[in-house]
């Protein structure tokens, strides 16, 4: 990548855009609501069960100017969800400020593995054992979404819940490939620990992006 382009990527004015689409939020607190998704490439967290592994290599996604991204988003929705990949790999301040200047509400879905940048109305934190969140992001999270792949993940979820604020919304979500096995365990856990709620990937049941 030539230096001029790399400098703009580093500054957050160009971002490796994988895809952008208008759909229904399928997970977590805002399930069932319409939103415009911006999926940014680049992630080194490396979850073995990730369902968007094609997002990992930022070099396969074209550096796209944020003005173009913002213009596209403004045509579709007032609610924007920035996801990845891992969006916080990049400086999110220019993109989020540009979206907010156009009157949009801006959400992020992040593992928290990198320092928080950007101006956010809603932060969904989904910690991963392989690369833990930076300490500072826990107090900023509005939503803690824990992916449950096996039984040990329940203890991990409880430990992570101790780090967020008292107002943070707590969700357990079965990893899609093991959902039939884990849903009964999740429902039992939530009934015993009612501060938690169940999240399902409802967009997959609806067969939408």
Q: Any chance you could write out the topology, listing elements then pairs?
A:
Layout: H1 3-11, E1 14-24, E2 34-40, E3 63-65, H2 66-74, E4 79-83, H3 93-101, E5 105-110, E6 122-125, E7 143-148, H4 152-161, E8 169-174, H5 179-192, E9 196-198, H6 202-206
Parallel strand pairs: 2-4, 4-5, 5-6, 6-7, 7-8, 8-9
Antiparallel strand pairs: 1-2, 1-3
Keywords: 4Fe-4S, Iron, Iron-sulfur, Lyase, Magnesium, Metal-binding, Queuosine biosynthesis, S-adenosyl-L-methionine
GO biological process, one term: tRNA queuosine(34) biosynthetic process
Enzyme class: lyase
What does this structure look like?
The protein is α/β, with parallel strands linked by helices and 209 residues long. It has a single domain, classed as Aldolase class I (TIM Barrel, Alpha-Beta Barrel), CATH 3.20.20. The chain has six helices and nine strands, in the order αβββαβαβββαβαβα. It has helices spanning 3-11, 66-74, 93-101, 152-161, 179-192, 202-206; strands at residues 14-24, 34-40, 63-65, 79-83, 105-110, 122-125, 143-148, 169-174, 196-198. The protein has a nine-stranded mixed β-sheet with strand order 3-1-2-4-5-6-7-8-9. β4, α3 (93-101) and β5 (105-110) form a beta-alpha-beta unit. The longest helix is centred in the C-terminal third of the chain and has 14 residues, at 179-192. The chain is globular and about 55 Å long. The model has no long low-confidence stretch (mean pLDDT 96).
């Amino acid at each position: 990548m030539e230096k001029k382009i790399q400098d703009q990527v580093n500054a957050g004015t160009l971002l490796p855009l994988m895809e952008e689409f208008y759909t229904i939020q399928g997970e977590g607190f805002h399930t069932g609501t319409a939103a415009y998704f911006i999926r940014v490439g680049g992630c080194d967290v490396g979850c073995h069960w990730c369902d968007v592994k094609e997002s990992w290599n930022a070099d396969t996604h074209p550096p796209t100017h944020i003005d173009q991204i913002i213009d596209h988003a403004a045509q579709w929705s007032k609610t924007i969800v920035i996801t990845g990949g891992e969006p916080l790999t990049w400086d999110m301040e220019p993109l989020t400020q540009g979206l907010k200047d156009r009157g949009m509400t801006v959400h992020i879905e992040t593992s928290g593995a990198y320092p928080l940048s950007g101006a956010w109305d809603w932060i969904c934190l989904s910690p991963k054992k392989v690369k833990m969140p930076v300490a500072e992001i826990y107090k900023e999270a509005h939503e803690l979404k824990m992916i449950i792949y096996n039984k040990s993940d329940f203890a991990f979820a409880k430990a992570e819940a101790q780090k967020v604020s008292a107002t943070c919304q707590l969700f357990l979500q079965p990893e899609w490939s093991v959902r039939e096995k884990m849903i009964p365990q999740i429902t039992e856990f939530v009934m015993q620990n009612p501060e938690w709620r169940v999240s399902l990937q409802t967009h997959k049941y609806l067969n939408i992006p």
